[in-house]
Amino acid sequence: MDLVGACRAFVAVSDHGGFTDGAAAAGVSQPVASRRVAALEERLGEPLFERSVRRAVLTPFGREMLPHARRLVEDADGLLHEAAAARRRPWKLAVPETCTTGGLARLVARARGLGMLLDPRPARPARRGELLLARRVRAALLAVPEQEAAWPVPLGLAAARDPGVRRVHLETLRLGRTARGPARRVWLQPEDDVPHVRDPLAQLRDAVGLRPAQLALAPDTTTAVAEILAAPDLLLCSAAQACHLGLHWRPLGEYTPVRGYLLGLAADSGPEPPLSRLGEEIGACVGASTPGDPADERDGG
Description:
By secondary structure, the chain is of the alpha/beta class. It has three domains: 3-87, Winged helix-like DNA-binding domain superfamily/Winged helix DNA-binding domain (Arc Repressor Mutant, subunit A), CATH 1.10.10; 89-147 and 260-279, D-Maltodextrin-Binding Protein, domain 2 (3-Layer(aba) Sandwich), CATH 3.40.190; 153-257, D-Maltodextrin-Binding Protein, domain 2. Helix content is 43%, strand content 17%. Helix 1 (3-16) crosses helix 2 (19-26) and helix 2 packs across helix 3. The longest helix has 29 residues, at 60-88. It comes from Streptomyces solincola. This is LysR family transcriptional regulator. Residues 1-59 form the HTH lysR-type domain. Keywords: DNA-binding, Transcription, Transcription regulation.
């Protein structure tokens, strides 16, 4: 038996003094309201209305049960209202600044199709963790090492002009003793200013004999790309980002740096299921590789 529906019919019939008007107020037909009240009476074990009169007159038992039934209906309506409000409350999600507008738009649209209002908040890696810890967002794409990542993003080097090789070896940037002019640099974006990306690259720089300044951290992506376009420098990025920026991308010859992302949830964020169904769209947003499209076979640009 639908206890809430039966109580709703009982309260409506009582409030309107009859089954016809009460059924209309409850949004059901008169026969349905009658069946629901009869089922409730059977469940409770006593009549709720006098059957010997034309109007819906409560029995003493009905008068005693009415406040409880009304409270149950009000609680059910309150629950439905809160559920609707929770669905309308935006899911604030901290995302990398490298996510494109198109990628975020597709993510938001897909979430909306799942009944979820997503509010992406672009931020740098450390800031995303801070926002999640402070519960200023309900979830965040956290930067983690490859072995911990749900979405690994292989990185390589991108240039304004086609490098003419399938891979770029960092050692080819080393200046000879008689070389003149500025050394070519590899620019890191703020998104890659994390130990698991930055530190191995710095170790490789030192191992192949590059100058310290040849690995540079840009204040933002726009500045980094401007340096690539103005000089024969290189940008550490994903193949997807290089394509978006109109740059020529190649894998790094010595090893493959990887950005890693893991979905972190605030302690009071509620259930995860809607976000867990957005894995493909989240992967596309961060530039993760897809099966059958290995990073070392992409040519970019």
